[in-house]
Amino acid sequence: MRLPAAHARSHERVLRICAAGGDAHALRVRLLREFRALLGAEAFAFLLTDPATSVGCAPVARVPVLPELPRLIRLKYLTRADRWTSLTGAAALSGLPEEERGPLWEDLLRPAGVRDVASAVFRDRFGCWGFLDLWRYGAEFGAADLAYLDAVTAPVTEALRRAQAAGFPARPPGVARPGPLVLLLSPDLRVRGQTPEAPAYLAGLIPPEEGRAPVPAAAYNVAAQLLAREAGVDPNPPRARVHLADGVWLTLRAARIDDGSGVAAPGKRAPGQGMSPPSDREIAVTIEETTPADRLDVFCRAHGLTGRETELLGHLADGADTGAVAHAMSLSAHTVQDHLKSVFAKTGTRHRRGLLARALGT
Q: pTM (2 decimals)?
């Protein structure tokens, strides 16, 4: 579909924004300013995602019902309609019959006065790097709007991946190593308790407005993915890796609390069982520094390394020299060096020591 003139001009501006790059937060702020100027979305959510699990983290958002944020995120993950994990192109909720729009629309968005939602996912062969929801109150999104979002998907995906690649600088000496930290959430994702240092790290992920407590949106997202996995909506694990600052990456995971006592909470005994059913148990979200192996995985994906280059870097991380790598990969030493030169070029490094320092965070 040929884009209307206004959409085509905006598309060109998006290409320039993507080419200019910048950190992942600033990039999304600039893109949202352009999207909203053209499409008129009154509210939005633009999340980064873990490239392997597609679980959201570090949102830039203005949501229709902020006091209901935990509920909104829970319903987002439990709704199959236009879920970012299954989208193959931009979609508008208005394109579906009302009975197929799911619980997010039925229970929250429509009662809040939302007219339509446009969704897009930013995914390439290296992983899923983010997703976008745009909410409108006054009018539905049209075919030209969705064609525009489809047209900007590829450059935005590449820009998001490059921004994530920039989250691997050589780590300064003396940077504190976090965690493990824990948030305790109720089954409906309300915060019940947290370890003392957790708010500081949450504030690092999403800086709060002055005078306000940090919003644990990243914790809500991994916990909501746990609910989605339990409900059979999506099989991916409830885990997200996210860049904090200074080359520090954090991993958030969610799991149900089980004290091992076999005693159900009052009024919550499951038929024929001694303990509470899983849906009644609280959820623990742990936050800790990403392990070198998990960090290496994101590093390779973000820099667009091939399978062979990723394998080579894994051997180097295990301490192998050129001869050992050549033997393990059934390659000549010369070919190993060629692959290594390609890795240096893609990652902006010059020697193995600097490459491994950035990739492993050591």
A: 0.91
